[in-house]
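Hi U.,

Before I forget, here's the chain from the pilot set. I'm dumping it here mostly so it's searchable later in email.
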Amino acid sequence: MTARTPHTLPFRDPQLPFAKRIDDLLSRLTLDEKIGFLHQFVPAVERLGIAAFRTGQEALHGVAWMGPATVFPQAVGLGATWNTDLVRRVGDAVSKETRAMRARDDRVGLNVWAPTVNLLRHPLWGRNEEGYSEDPKLTSAIATAYTHGLRGDHPTYWRTAPVLKHWLAHNNETGRDVTSSSVRPRVLHEYDLRAFRETVEAGAVAGVMPAYNLVNGRPNHVSPYLREQLRTWTDEEVLVCSDAGAPSNLVDSEHYFDTHEEATAAALLAGVDSFTDHGTDSSKITARVRGALEQGLLTEPDINTAVRRQLSVRFRLGEFDPEYDPHALTTDFDTLAHRALAQEAAEQSVVLLKNSGGLLPLAPDTRLAVVGLLADECKRDWYSGTLIHRSTPLAGLHERFGAERVQFAEGVDRIRLKTSDGAFLQVPQAEAADEVRAAEGALDPALLAGRTDLPPLGTDATGTEFSLVDWGEGVLTLRAPDGRYLSVAEDGYVRASADQPGGWVVQETFRLEPHENGHLLRHIGTGRHVSVAADGVKVADAHPEAFEVVVVESGEDAVHRVASQADVVLVVAGNDPHINGRETEDRTTLALPAHQERLLRAARTANPNTVLTLVSAYPYAVDHAEVPALLWTAHGGQAAGTALARILAGDVSPAGRIPQTWYADDADLPDLLDYDVIGGRQTYLYFEGTPLFPFGHGLSYASFSYGGLTTRVEDGILHVSFTVGNTGDVTADEVAQLYTRAVEPSVVRPRRELAAHQRVTLAPGEVTEIAFRVPLSAFAFWDVAQGRQRVAPGLYEVLVGASSEDIRLARTLDLDGEPPVPRPVMADGLHAVDFDDQHDTEIVDRTKTSGDSVTPVAGRRGELVFRDGDFGNGAAGITVEAAGEGTVELSLDDGPVLAVLTLSPGTAGPYDYAMVSASAVIGAGVHDVRLGLRGPVRLARVTFSV
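Structure:
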């Protein structure tokens, strides 16, 4: 390093610690300049030579929204690899491409909004594709690997600055900005916080993004857990970036605050440092901050705290030390190594779910029929970059087996649409330049408009033959022969103009609605029907056209024809990531769409040697009884087709493992808004039914033996070792999984819980030893009586196997732990939220800043159960602290009601609490306490008196 010159300002001096440099820079910024730092788009401070900055660059599985980039498998696919080394290398490649792209376009940001660590609690969640797993341990392991790759290895300067999404307990798109997740303390600490905590503690996280939803009645953007939890996990400054538009939601949709000044101040004080709102226009946020200052809701030191956190990230990114930034000259973009890595990741993410009779791998001379709606597709999702390379299953199989051995039928229904006057819808010849609507470098693809440079549809005597696909629930797409999808632009005309369905509001989907002797065609994006006018086909509020659907060829007939001529038929089914399950839209069922079920039946009827490959962002409940082989892969990015072909041919043995439970039926699922994974018996941790496929499941072309399990406990660490051997004929990967289970727990504990895993490559006959070190804290649960983690004494099973249900080795440990103690209810009372069990209640906010209360579900009687309350020599009275209106009923054990406490008339508001007392003769000793709740009462705390 060069010595500091007399003219170097301290914040420019690389010899000083970052903290001192930030102090100096903060002291030089004016209040107005600091306020400008609070919006996502930070203006330059030219007088100090400070460049403009923006938080946020989507990079979930490649650089997104900024044009061409290497596209890796979806996040859920990366989770399915169970390979932390691979995922770290993917993160490394993504961060290098981010740097390389920024070198030629300074709109590319280095503060990357990735990864998503929301747990995949519910498979109908529309954003299932963005998470890694339903398990917090696997999620944190994969997320830690990705963030380390994004960060880079330099001890001082970060290549990019990762932000974890979305804090907290966020698994529903339905009403996502107004619904509240009721999260009991055990679920909070044992489940939802864990994935965030373990990833942050690993040291490569620069920030966190709160989610749109509320938790326990309080919006995540004013969550006390940002202060009470997140910022206690690391000594680094953590930048909290709001989700887009969420600050305004605090007033506009959630009505949690009366004014935007109050809401903005509350969010800032809770820990939000950067406000993503109103796009590039910072004027509204900065005006709200100034208003909050004028009203005394904020102080300048409050603003300094937020600005300091942002500056900490910018210093770590090397912005103020360009000559020392080791990443400044990074040029790695679409390299041969990145292409190979994309293929490796796609191969490792493929899961072989079933392989009866050894149908796979396919023999080299196999005559293949490849059918299905995704057989010749390489789909992008909302957080994909623009594909530079594109490999579909069909293309991959052509390359691997030869085009002459592969027949293809997409399985679409080929139709014409006949109008009431006997003409047919027709796509006119177009002379406009060919373009892809996913415009390069769109900072927000939600703002992309449909094309208007092409002529709208018209009618003629013969019409155009369209490919119709029903994606489920009556949602249709219509595609012209040149591959363009029918779409509606802002002017309302229908054109064949889109390369794929997409956009924040998809403009390429329709519904056919029965009408008299025909069908009306409703455009879903606008809600309007298609009408035929003299100047072209458009959507309109009046004069809808009644169409006759003339089927030229059904998809089933085409599939049956090619399937009957092949040795093996490959059905490629699944989802389009922009339709029926995506950001803003949850799925309604696990079922495969009926159109695709029909194609599968047609293939099976024609050829019993049917292989079903599901290419999807989430699990399906499929009847596979008559399907001898079944695979699943997430949308695998640019190399998906090549990867699948190599798996099918046996060039690579499959070794992906499903990262979430595949349930057999919708009836197995909890309500989408039931976040109580313990009480609702959700995920593999608690589910008591029989899954279609269990967590961690995945088959191989090889077989593996397990043996030699040893365990020992030393210095608070459980040491586990065992051997795994390849007893098959091919080199293959195995994913060895270690689970633990409390044998006789005093509270509901997981049926088994992942403690560690390792993916290993073994040649035929090769044996390797695997060793894990598991801290004894991994056996702890959140003791609600003591308000902390506790390892209970007793027996625990150590289980080793190939999935959560395929256990090969087991040993039992006897851990000392800490014995339970009765709740000291006479001294401490009971906080309502610290229940052991509940029925028909939900947790709500005690105040707008902190604390929890419990209220019954509307129209029902709620009950809270508190086990083992120590009443000493007994009690004579009870006092409740509650708000609202209604009653609280006290009973002990299984006995009668001892006291009824009534709030009538109710308190003035939901945050106005009153103390209500009653006599209650309670005998000495330890009792279970039961509290019944009726009416809209909000119970915060109960105390007892002598």
